[in-house]
UniProtKB/TrEMBL annotation, chain B:
Keywords: ATP-binding, Nucleotide-binding, Transport. CDD domains: ABC_NikE_OppD_transporters. Pfam families: ABC_tran (PF00005), oligo_HPY (PF08352). Residues 17-267 form the ABC transporter domain. Belongs to the ABC transporter superfamily. This is ATP-binding cassette domain-containing protein. SUPFAM superfamilies: P-loop containing nucleoside triphosphate hydrolases (SSF52540). GO terms for molecular function: ATP binding.
């Protein structure tokens, strides 16, 4: 029965095209872009985007420095030397052994900066992952079930959202105490509502799409539709946001440690704490403040550039 | 008695209008479909026309049990499926499929065409008739069936590795159609199947739908706003206005002799690609806009805009959809008088032919 | 009534000449120094006072870009426009922005497909109509309001005084389109460019809006450029029709002539492929094969050739011109329907085996 081929329907191939025309047409439009999935296409656009490349380079350098900090850093971060040469007004000058000099406590400044990257990365990434996990769980529940689950979850999120992020972080730190985990939980807690709302909104938008109705009418199970179609299609904006949130998380790590919520161990290098310590000598040794500040800004910029480029690459409107 | 594949009796679909700060409360209903009865004979094409907001798409989806019904009955192949849910409904879905208006939106952009086409087979398995030809369910037999479907809709095998965004609108619609008929369904509901396509491509898809009907013995319900398209492919046409069917007739009769005032104005409003016919065409213009389906007018729903409106009955009595000639059903109190020319439309509404 | 435009373009003289004369208009998208995409190529047409000229084509044919270029609405960056568009002898394309802005609204107006995006959502309808009146005429507030009410009423908007205070989102689609037409007409333009004005509307509303436009042409003598994909709208409204395909005009004729004797294979195919309400249902439709994406660059062959049933080797030529095939009937085709091609073209035809 199905072997009947419609007669009056003319597929493209059935056209009597003279060879000269085929030559003039050149390679078909279809042939150039064969089987490019959305993600592959986004990645290709990303590679062509200069700001994505700059962002990716910054992020890569940052991650490499953080991961290989013990190897790269010339000294142990806790080691102090030449303490006798440090006075309230003078520090030892730059030297071959200490290219960026020493800080007020006699630690090698370059070592401090490198280990600071490690601290920022670990706390930043872990907190963002925690925030993403919590937010995705809440948002996913609301988006998948809708109805009263949605109402309940979103009211909780609204309450979370009405508390200023930094204040929330400080309160969490106050409850849990001064530990790196406290910082992570604090920053993650502030991110949960962002991810929850984003994923829920994204899923609701996808659920309204015709392909979901098409899947229902094909008789797919509800679970399959949500897990195999709605969720993957909703992740784009969430991934973009996670990249952007990493930038804010790194700034927040610095801000909290600047406010004294960082590690209780004074020998652990943190960019935020370096800022505080450098402040005292801002007039005489501005590099003690400027360099950690620059590190924070450049790293945040790297993640922002990458995130914005990702957003553009995943935007369906910029497709082809 | 005619063998009807799908029937609706007094079918209603109401959308709640919700308001509320913390908890939503229902403050009213949009009566998208408000008491529709129709029957579609097996192997035929039923066309549903009307303007946006008339409920034609909702009715189409309701027939497939994709909308919650607020009342009435849907009978599919002799069985009442109105209350069917869960697993039995899911299993039944292989017998009834849908073709969508926007093929870009109705195909998951992340899936390759191969995955899109074989997904229904992975869920339901091959149809009985196909087992003989393609063998038992396996990814190889599913792939073979998918290739056969592509041939049937006129697309090359290389299509399988590509993704929806790599095709033109017409090609995507062919993929959507292949996906809808891959399970060998009996009923296909096509919701505006060509309106998103370029004019030069529309005829390809219309012909494809007709050829597939002949080849596979499909029963169609075609929902569209373009009366010329619906008239071309339908055997019977139902004209909808504000949630109800106001007239139902065989396709040729509807154009030759429209009976309901709304059908008359609708037909007179459609421009014809022929300057000679255009110059001699009398137009009857409707005043105002479609009333809100949340609060439809009393009596006949069309009375607020009807150029033939009378003081008696129209504003108070709801006209029943009654059979006034064999095969012709119309919901107008004055249909016979209008047909006989005893009632004339409001002179302000009539625009004389433009002449030349 | 209609200005006949030959293949050799009619001169765009000032006195007594056409109201709008577009000559060799080309629009190329792409940064300077890059090859770019030619959306419109050497398009020429004239519009006489009180005349309705149609531009028909599918999405991507360049019909909308043509009108945007004439109105100066294309972005300055990344777009190269050449040729001229003379309105009463003054070239709109080279005119300074301020001068063009004076023309726009006062003498030239445009109606778009989507009234929701072309009306400002945060300003009341009344303000948007009176704004135009104020911009071009010195009027007191009360006078402007009276004129606006009158204008909305003439455009078929019931209860216009109340509508003045409403925002665009409070109006239905049809009302919005009428409000947009009212703003376009506020200063009685001599030329109205309509870009798919009824595509987003239902047929009964479309009929109302088209009727309104017909009255305008008849009563005010407004000239109109009607850009649409709907051949039915063209048949009922236009005097002169230009058919565009892949950025070029492929056929041009008077309306009756075009529908009675379509010569270009694309026009012919289009007319055969659309179901007609008054046609014979038993006859199958004859579709145009392929998709509008199956194109070949015009400078190598006829762009329609990949979809044409009559294609031969002779179609593969880069210099296919829009040539006169009859009085007032120009066609860009090697094998036109219903008869021989113009001499210049036939000379090189070699029949395909």
């Amino acid at each position: 029965m199905t072997s009947v081929t419609p007669a009056s329907f003319t597929p493209d191939e059935g056209l009597p095209r003279p060879q000269s025309l085929v030559d003039a047409m050149g390679p078909a439009l279809d042939a150039q872009e064969t089987g490019t999935s959305l993600w592959a296409g986004a990645f290709r656009r990303l590679r062509r985007d200069p700001s994505a490349i700059v962002g990716a380079v910054i992020v890569t350098i940052f991650v490499l420095v953080a991961v290989f900090a013990p190897v790269l850093a010339p000294y142990e971060p806790a080691r102090t030397q030449w303490a006798n040469q440090i006075t309230p007004t003078t520090l030892p000058p730059f030297s071959a052994e200490h290219p960026l000099g020493l800080d007020s406590f006699g630690s090698d400044f370059l070592t401090q900066l490198i280990h600071g990257a490690r601290q920022s990365l670990i706390i930043g990434i872990v907190s963002t992952l925690l925030g993403l996990a919590g937010g995705a769980l809440l948002g996913g529940l609301a988006g998948a079930f809708g109805g009263w689950v949605d109402t309940l979850v979103m009211r909780i999120v609204d309450i979370l959202l009405s508390i200023p992020a930094l204040l929330l972080a400080v309160s969490v730190a106050a409850i849990v105490g001064r530990r790196p985990e406290a910082l992570m939980i604090a920053i993650a807690a502030a991110q949960v509502p962002i991810f929850a709302r984003l994923l829920r909104g994204s899923m609701l938008r996808q659920r309204g799409q015709d392909y979901v109705l098409a899947s229902t009418s094909l008789g797919l199970r509800r679970r399959t539709i949500v897990m195999a179609h709605v969720l993957p299609n909703s992740l784009g904006p969430v991934i973009v946001q996670a990249t952007l949130v990493l930038a804010t998380a790194i700034i927040e790590v610095a801000a909290l440690s600047y406010l004294g919520m960082g590690s209780p161990d004074p020998t652990v290098a943190e960019w935020g704490r370096m800022l505080v310590r450098g402040q005292e000598r801002l007039q005489s040794y501005p590099h003690l403040t400027l360099l950690p500040g620059l590190c924070i800004a450049v790293t945040a910029l790297g993640f922002t550039l990458l995130g914005e480029a990702l957003r553009e690459a995943l935007d369906p409107k910029s497709r082809r | 008695m005619t063998d009807h594949l799908v029937e609706a009796q007094d079918l209603k679909v109401h959308y709640p209008i919700r308001r509320g700060l913390v908890f939503d409360r229902t403050v009213g209903h949009v009566r998208a479909v408000d008491g529709v009865s129709l029957a579609v004979p097996r192997g035929s094409t039923y066309g549903l026309v009307g303007e946006s907001g008339c409920g034609k798409s909702t009715l189409g989806r309701a027939l497939l049990r994709l909308e919650e019904t607020a009342g009435g009955q849907i009978v599919f192949d002799g069985d009442d499926i109105t209350q069917l849910r869960g697993e039995p409904l899911r299993v039944l879905r292989r017998r009834m499929q849908m073709v969508f208006q926007d093929p870009m939106a109705s195909l998951d952009p992340r899936q390759s065409i191969q995955s899109l086409l074989t997904e229904p087979l992975r869920v339901h398995g091959l149809a009985e008739a196909d087992r003989e030809e393609f063998g038992a369910d396996s990814s190889a037999s599913h792939l073979a069936k998918a290739v056969r479907m592509l041939e049937l809709v006129g697309l090359p095998r290389a299509t399988l590795e590509k993704y929806p965004h790599e095709f033109s609108g017409g090609q995507r619609q062919r993929i959507g159609i292949a996906r809808a008929v891959i399970l060998n369904p009996e009923l296909v509901i096509a919701d505006e199947p060509v309106s998103a396509l370029d004019v030069s491509v529309q005829a390809q898809v219309i012909n494809l739908l007709e050829d597939l009907q002949d080849a596979l013995g499909l029963t169609y319900v075609v929902v569209a706003h373009d009366l010329a398209v619906v008239r071309h492919i339908s055997d019977r046409i139902g004209v909808m206005y504000l949630g109800v069917i106001v007239e139902e007739a065989p396709a040729d009769d509807l154009y030759a002799e429209p009976l309901h005032p709304y059908t008359i104005t609708l037909l007179s409003a459609i421009p014809v690609p022929d300057p000679v016919a255009e110059a001699s065409r009398e137009r009857i213009l409707l005043s105002g806009d479609l009333p809100s389906p949340a609060n439809p007018p009393t009596g006949c729903r069309f009375h607020t805009r009807c150029p033939w409106v009378r003081d008696e009955l129209c504003r108070t009595e709801v006209p029943a959809l009654r059979e006034i000639a064999p095969g012709r059903r119309v919901a107008c109190h004055w249909a016979e008088s209008i047909a006989a020319g005893r009632l004339a439309p409001d002179a302000d509404a009539v625009v004389p032919p433009r002449g030349d | 009534m209609s200005t006949v435009v030959g293949g050799a373009a009619a001169s765009g003289s000032v006195g007594g000449g056409p109201l709008l004369s577009v000559r060799d208009l080309s629009v190329v998208f792409g940064r300077r120094g890059q090859p770019g995409f030619t959306a419109v190529h050497h398009v020429s047409f004239d519009v006489a006072g009180g005349e309705v000229v149609g531009i028909v084509g599918e999405s991507g044919s360049g019909k909308s870009v043509t009108s945007m270029a004439v109105m100066g609405l294309l972005p300055a960056r990344g777009v190269r426009i050449s040729g001229e568009a003379r309105y009463r002898g003054r070239d709109l394309l080279t005119m300074p922005d301020r001068e063009r802005a004076r023309y726009r609204g006062a003498e030239l107006a445009m109606v778009f497909q989507d009234p929701m995006t072309s009306l400002n959502p945060v300003v009341t309808v009344g303000t948007q109509v009176t704004e135009v009146l104020h911009a071009h005429e010195r009027l007191s507030r009360a006078d402007a309001r009276d004129q606006a009410v009158d204008l909305l009423r003439r455009c078929g908007i019931p209860d216009p005084a109340r509508r003045l205070g409403e925002y665009p989102h409070q109006l239905s689609g049809g009302m919005r389109q009428r409000a947009l037409i009212a703003t376009a007409l506020a200063c009685k333009p001599k030329l109205l460019i309509c870009d798919e004005p009824t595509t987003a509307l239902d047929v009964t509303i479309q009929a109302q809006v088209l009727e309104l436009l017909v009255e305008l042409v008849r009563d005010l003598g407004t000239a109109m450029v009607m850009i649409t994909h709907d051949l039915g709208v063209v048949a009922g409204l236009c005097d002169q029709v230009n058919v565009m395909y892949a950025g070029r005009i492929v056929e041009r004729a008077g309306c009756h002539e075009l529908f009675a004797r379509p010569r270009h294979r694309y026009t012919e195919g289009l007319l055969a492929s659309i179901p007609r309400l008054d046609g014979d249902r038993s006859l199958p439709l004859t579709p145009i094969p392929g998709t509008p994406r199956d194109v070949v660059a015009w400078d190598r062959a006829c762009a329609f050739a990949p979809r044409c049933r009559f294609v031969t080797d002779a179609c593969v030529r880069g210099d296919l011109a829009l040539a006169p095939l009859g009085p007032g009937h120009d066609v860009r085709c090697v094998h036109p329907a219903g008869g021989a091609a113009p001499g210049a073209v036939t000379a090189t035809i070699q029949e395909a085996p």
